[in-house]
Design goal:
Strand content of chain C: under 5%
CATH topology of the largest domain in chain C: MetI-like fold
CATH class of the domain at 93-210 in chain A: Alpha Beta
Number of strands of chain A: 12
CATH class of the largest domain in chain C: Mainly Alpha
Helix content of chain A: 25-40%
CATH architecture of the domain at 93-210 in chain A: 3-Layer(aba) Sandwich
Strand content of chain A: 15-25%
CATH topology of the domain at 93-210 in chain A: Rossmann fold
Largest sheet of chain C: none
Largest interface: B-C, 45 and 48 residues
Order of helices and strands of chain C: HHHHHHHHHHHHH
Radius of gyration of chain A: 20 Å
CATH superfamily of the largest domain in chain C: MetI-like
Oligomer: heterotrimer
Helix content of chain C: over 70%
C-alpha cells in the first residue's frame, strides 16, 4: 500500500471574482522511498496540493470540498486538528520556496530549529542543543555554534534554505514536501541545494514530493512525475518514460519548449497562449484552447485520468502516440 | 482613432464596473452603510442650514432648558432647548455647518499645500527639498495639539487662524507621504521615457507624478478629516477655537458644561454628534482601504462568516 | 547602540528646540505687540508701558534676542505672572503628574489593545471581530473632553462614586485615566488587528504550522511578537502626543499636570509658563523617542540603532 494516497481532492477559494477551483479532482500516490515531482506552471495547483496535505489551507477563503488523503493507511482529512498538527513536522515536513519569508524574523535560527524538537517532545530537553548543532553541520553550515544564535536576515539565501532543510529533516519525517525550494536562489546555489536535499532524503530513506516547474531538477531527482494543469493531474509517468515519450499534449509541449542535450533538433516550440484564468476556465479540457489536437469532444467532456501501461496515466481524449 | 474610442469605452465600462462593485461591497459591510447614512443626514442638515430652510428661531425664555424627547412640542424642540431657550436641534445643525466646514477647508488646505510641497521636495530635492523636510520634521516632532495651541496663542483665536494653524500642523504628514510617493514615481520607468520624449518638468509632474500620488493622498485626507474634527472640537471646547456667537459642536459642549447636573442634554448631544461623525469618517476611510486592497476583497463578499 | 547615535539625536533635538523657540521669539515680535501676550486685551496704557519696560521691549531687537537666548541657555524662562514664582519651578512640579497619568493610561491602552486586537484578528470577519471593530472605532472617535464630562455626569453627579475634579488619592485618577485611555486604545486595536492578520498570513506562520505548532503557540509565540512591532511604533508616537496632549482632559478634571498648566497659561496670558512648559514637553518627547527606538531595537533584531 502506498505511503500517501490522494484521491479526487477538490479545493476552492472564494475571491471577489467568485469561487475558484484551485484543485479539481487531484489523485496521485507516493510510495515509500520514492521521489515524486509535481510539475506544472505557477497557478496549476502544485502548492495548494502541498498546503492541503499539511492542513495549511486557510478557511475562509479556502475550503477542501471533496476527496481523501490517506497517509500510512489512514484518511487524515477527518482527523481532529491537533492530530493533524502532530503529523506535521514529525512525519510529514514542508520546505517553502522563500526561506527568508518562511523563517520567523525575530527569533534566532537555532531556536527555530530547536522548536521542532520541543513541539513534538520526543527528544529530551538536554539533547536538543546538540541535535540542533548536528543538524546545522549536516546541512553544511560552518561554525554552527555561532550561527545558531544569529537571525535569519544575517544569512545568505542559500544558507537560509539550508536552515529550512535542517528544520524539515530534524525529526526524520517519512515524507519531505519541497515546494520550489530552489526557485528563489542563484543557479550555482540551486545545484548545491538540490544535492543537499537528495543527500538528507537518502540518509533517512524518506519519500519526497518535489514541487517545481524546472525540468532539469526533475530529471536529476525524481523517480516519477505528475504533471499538473489548471488544478488537475494530466499525466503521471516514470521520469524516463515522460522525458522520452510524453503522452499528454501539455507534457509534450513542456518538453518541446525546453532545449535538450540529447537531441539534434534546434527548434524550440513554445506552447501557444498562456495559462487560463482560474476564475474562468474553458469548458471540458482546460488545455484545449492551447492544444493543437483539440476537437469538439474536448469542449464537452473533461477527459478522465486513464491508465496507459504500468505506472502511467494520461487525461486526454487524443493522447500523443509514440512515433 | 478607433483605438482611442475603444479605450474610452473600456474606461467607461471600468468606471461603471467599479461603481457597481462599490455598491456590492458596501452591502457587505453594515457599519459602512450606517456611516454613509449618518453622513448623508449631516450633509442634508448642512444644506438646509446653508439655504436657511430652518426658519427663524428667536430666544424664547419659555423654552429655557427644555428637556429633550417632548414630542408634543414642535420638531425643532425634540432634542430640548438651551439656557436661552434656543432649540438644541437647530443649534446642532448650525454647528454642523461650522465644524464640518472648518474640517473640510482645513483638510483641503493641508492636502493641496502638503501635496505641492511634498512633490516639490521629492521631485526637485536639493536645498529647497531639504528645508521643507527639516521644517516638517520639527513640526511633526511636537504634539499637534501643542503646536496648534501655541499658534492660536500667538495669533489669537479666529476662524481663519484656526484653519491655518490646524492645516499647518497636519501638513507635514502629507508632505512626507507625497515626497515618498513622488520619489517612487520618479524612479519608475515611464517617467524616464517621458523625459526622453522631451516633456518639461511641469508636464511630467502633471501627467505622471500627480496621478500616481493622488490616491494615497486622498486616503490620508479621509483619515485626517476625522482627526481635524476632533482637534477643532477640543480647541473650541477650550475657548481657543470658534468664538461665540458662532457655534461649533465643541463650543456647545463647553457651553453645556455648566448645566451638566441640571440639563445634561446640552453637553451630551453635541459631543455625540462629534463622535458619530468622526466615527463615520473613520469607518468609511477603513472601508475605502479594504475596497482598494484586492487581497481583502473576499471579506466583503464571503457569505460564510 | 552607538555613541554617535546619541550625539546625532541630541544635536537634532537641540536644533529642533532652538528652531521652535527662536521662531516663537520672532513670531511674537512680528505679530504685533508682545505685551498682548502678558496682559489682557483691556489693560490700561500705563500698565502696558510698565510691562514694556519690564520686558525690555524698549531696547533694540538684537539686544532683546541676545538677552533672551542667554536666558534660554541658562534654562531661565522668567517669572510666572500668576504663580509669582520662577516658571520652570511651576512646570517641574506639574510634570511628574502628567507623566504618571500618561504612562498609566497608555500602558493600559497598549495591553488592552493587544488582547482585543489579537482576538479580533484571530476571528477576522466574524461577529466578535465586528463588535471589537465598532467598539475600537468608537473609542478612537470619541472626543476625550466629552467622554470626561459624561464620566463626571454618570459617576460623580448621578452615582456619586467618584470626585468630579481635583487632585489627591487614587479616586482622582480613575476618570482622567479612563478618558485618556480611549483614543490610544481605539487606534492601537486597529493597528494590532491589522498587523496580527498580516502576521497570521505570513509564510513564517505557515512554517510554524508545518512544524506542528498548535494554534496557541502559532498566535502567541510566532505571530504576536511580529505584530507588536507596528504597535510599538504607534505607541511611541502617541506617547509623544501625550506629553503635552493630555491637556484637554487635565482641564476637564482640574488635574494639576502640564497640559492644564499650559492651557491655563495661554488663557491667562502667562508667557513665561507657556515657554517653560513647551520647553519641558520638548525634552520629554526627546527622551520618549530614544526610549522607543531602544525598545524597538530590542524586539526587532533586524533593527540595529545606528
Amino acid at each position: 500500500m502506498a505511503l500517501l494516497e490522494i484521491k479526487n481532492l477538490q479545493v476552492s477559494f472564494d475571491t471577489a471574482a467568485g469561487r475558484i477551483l484551485a484543485l479539481n479532482g487531484v489523485s496521485f500516490s507516493l510510495e515509500r522511498g520514492e521521489v515524486l515531482a509535481l510539475l506544472g506552471e505557477s497557478g496549476s495547483g502544485k502548492s495548494v496540493t502541498a498546503a492541503a496535505i499539511m492542513d495549511l489551507i486557510t478557511d475562509p477563503p479556502g475550503a477542501i470540498n471533496e476527496g481523501t488523503i490517506h497517509f500510512d493507511g489512514t484518511d487524515i482529512l477527518p482527523l481532529p486538528q491537533n492530530e493533524r498538527r502532530d503529523l506535521c513536522g514529525s512525519r510529514i515536513a514542508l520546505i517553502f520556496q522563500d526561506a527568508l519569508a518562511a523563517l520567523n524574523p525575530v527569533y534566532p535560527v537555532g531556536w527555530q530549529i530547536a522548536e521542532t524538537f520541543r513541539i513534538h517532545g520526543r527528544t529530551p530537553a538536554g539533547g536538543i542543543n546538540q541535535a540542533v548543532l548536528d543538524l546545522l553541520t549536516a546541512v553544511g553550515i560552518p561554525d554552527p555554534g555561532r550561527r545558531a544564535k544569529q537571525y535569519p536576515h544575517e544569512f545568505s539565501g542559500g544558507m537560509r534554505q539550508r536552515i529550512m532543510i535542517a528544520m524539515a529533516v530534524a525529526l526524520e519525517p517519512d515524507i519531505i514536501i519541497a515546494d520550489e525550494p530552489t526557485t528563489a536562489l542563484d543557479v550555482t546555489i540551486q545545484a548545491q541545494i538540490v544535492d543537499l536535499l537528495d543527500r538528507v532524503r537518502k540518509r533517512s530513506d524518506a519519500s519526497m514530493i518535489f514541487i517545481t516547474h524546472d525540468l532539469g531538477v526533475v530529471a536529476e531527482l525524481a523517480d516519477r512525475v505528475a504533471v499538473m494543469y489548471a488544478g488537475r493531474i494530466v499525466e503521471t509517468a516514470d521520469v524516463v518514460e515522460l522525458f522520452e515519450d510524453p503522452r499528454h499534449p501539455y507534457s509534450n509541449g513542456l518538453l518541446a519548449s525546453q532545449p535538450r542535450m540529447d537531441s539534434d533538433e534546434t527548434e524550440l516550440l513554445p506552447i501557444p497562449g498562456s495559462a487560463p484564468n482560474p476564475a474562468d476556465l474553458p469548458s471540458g479540457c482546460a488545455f484545449r484552447t492551447r492544444c493543437s489536437r483539440s476537437a469538439d469532444i474536448c469542449a464537452k467532456t473533461v477527459p478522465a485520468l486513464q491508465s496507459m501501461g504500468p505506472g502511467r496515466q494520461v487525461a486526454c481524449h487524443f493522447p500523443v502516440v509514440p512515433a | 482613432m478607433t483605438e482611442t474610442a475603444s479605450e474610452l469605452l473600456n474606461e467607461r465600462e471600468a468606471a461603471n464596473g467599479r461603481f457597481a462593485w462599490f455598491l456590492r461591497a458596501l452591502r457587505g459591510d453594515p457599519m459602512a452603510v450606517a456611516a454613509t447614512i449618518w453622513l448623508l443626514i449631516v450633509v442634508l442638515a448642512i444644506v438646509a442650514d446653508v439655504f436657511s430652510l430652518l426658519g427663524e428661531h428667536r430666544i424664547s425664555l419659555k423654552a429655557r432648558n427644555l428637556p429633550p424627547f417632548d414630542f408634543s412640542q414642535i420638531w425643532t424642540l425634540w432634542l430640548g432647548a438651551d439656557a436661552l431657550g434656543r432649540p438644541l436641534l437647530v443649534r446642532l445643525i448650525q454647528a454642523a455647518s461650522t465644524t464640518i466646514g472648518i474640517a473640510l477647508v482645513t483638510v483641503l488646505t493641508s492636502l493641496v499645500g502638503g501635496t505641492l510641497l511634498g512633490v516639490i521636495a521629492g521631485y526637485f530635492g536639493g536645498f529647497i527639498g531639504n528645508v521643507i523636510m527639516r521644517i516638517s520634521d520639527i513640526i511633526l516632532g511636537f504634539p499637534t495639539l501643542l503646536v496648534a495651541l501655541f499658534g492660536l496663542y500667538l495669533f489669537g483665536p479666529s476662524v481663519l487662524n484656526l484653519i491655518l494653524v490646524l492645516a499647518i500642523t497636519r501638513m507635514p504628514a502629507y508632505i512626507r507621504v507625497a515626497r515618498a510617493e513622488t520619489l517612487e514615481a520618479r524612479e519608475r520607468l515611464f517617467v524616464d521615457a517621458a523625459r526622453v520624449f522631451g516633456g518639461g518638468s511641469l508636464w511630467i509632474l502633471r501627467m505622471h507624478i500627480l496621478p500616481s500620488v493622488a490616491p494615497t493622498m486622498l486616503t490620508l485626507a479621509s483619515v485626517n478629516l476625522a482627526m481635524v474634527m476632533l482637534f477643532e472640537s477640543g480647541l473650541s471646547y477650550l475657548g481657543l477655537g470658534i468664538q461665540p456667537p458662532a457655534v461649533s459642536w465643541g463650543l456647545m459642549v463647553a457651553q453645556g458644561q455648566g448645566y451638566l447636573s441640571t440639563a445634561w442634554w446640552l453637553g451630551f448631544f453635541p459631543g455625540l454628534a462629534v463622535m458619530l461623525t468622526t466615527m463615520s469618517f473613520n469607518l468609511l476611510a477603513n472601508w475605502f482601504r479594504i475596497v482598494n486592497d484586492p487581497s481583502q476583497h473576499w471579506r466583503l463578499v464571503s457569505r460564510r462568516r | 547602540m552607538s555613541l554617535a547615535y546619541f550625539v546625532r539625536r541630541i544635536i537634532f533635538a537641540a536644533l529642533a528646540l532652538a528652531a521652535l523657540m527662536t521662531s516663537a521669539f520672532i513670531l511674537v515680535r512680528l505679530t504685533g505687540d508682545p505685551v498682548n501676550l502678558y496682559l489682557p486685551v483691556d489693560a490700561s496704557d500705563a500698565a502696558r508701558e510698565a510691562m514694556r519696560v519690564r520686558l525690555g521691549l524698549d531696547r533694540s531687537l538684537l539686544a532683546q534676542f541676545l538677552d533672551w537666548a542667554g536666558d534660554m541657555l541658562r534654562l531661565d524662562f522668567g517669572m510666572s505672572l500668576w504663580h509669582n514664582r520662577p516658571a520652570m519651578d511651576v512646570v517641574l512640579e506639574a510634570l511628574p503628574n502628567t507623566l504618571a497619568l500618561g504612562a498609566i493610561a497608555l500602558t493600559l491602552a497598549f495591553l488592552a489593545a493587544i488582547v482585543a486586537g489579537s482576538i479580533a484578528a484571530v476571528n477576522a470577519g466574524g461577529w466578535i471581530d465586528r463588535g471589537i471593530n465598532v467598539l475600537s472605532q468608537a473609542a478612537a472617535s470619541v472626543p476625550d473632553f466629552w467622554l470626561g464630562l459624561m464620566g463626571v455626569l454618570l459617576f460623580a453627579v448621578t452615582f456619586r462614586l467618584l470626585p468630579t475634579s481635583g487632585f489627591g488619592g487614587p479616586v482622582y485618577w480613575v476618570l482622567p485615566i479612563a478618558c485618556l485611555f480611549a483614543r490610544p486604545f481605539g487606534t492601537l486595536v486597529q493597528i494590532v488587528r491589522g498587523s496580527m492578520i498580516e502576521a497570521l498570513n505570513a509564510t513564517f506562520v505557515r512554517t510554524a504550522r508545518a512544524k506542528g505548532a498548535r494554534s496557541k503557540r502559532v498566535i502567541f509565540v510566532h505571530a504576536l511578537r511580529n505584530a507588536l512591532l507596528p504597535a510599538v511604533t504607534v505607541t511611541g508616537d502617541l506617547a509623544a502626543q501625550f506629553a503635552g496632549g493630555g491637556g484637554v482632559v487635565e482641564v476637564v478634571f482640574g488635574f494639576p499636570g502640564i497640559g492644564k498648566l499650559l492651557i491655563d497659561g495661554i488663557l491667562k496670558r502667562d508667557f513665561a509658563i507657556v515657554q517653560a512648559s513647551i520647553f519641558a514637553v520638548a525634552v520629554v518627547i526627546f527622551i520618549i523617542n530614544i526610549l522607543v527606538d531602544m525598545l524597538y531595537a530590542s524586539i526587532d533584531p533586524r533593527v540595529r540603532v545606528e
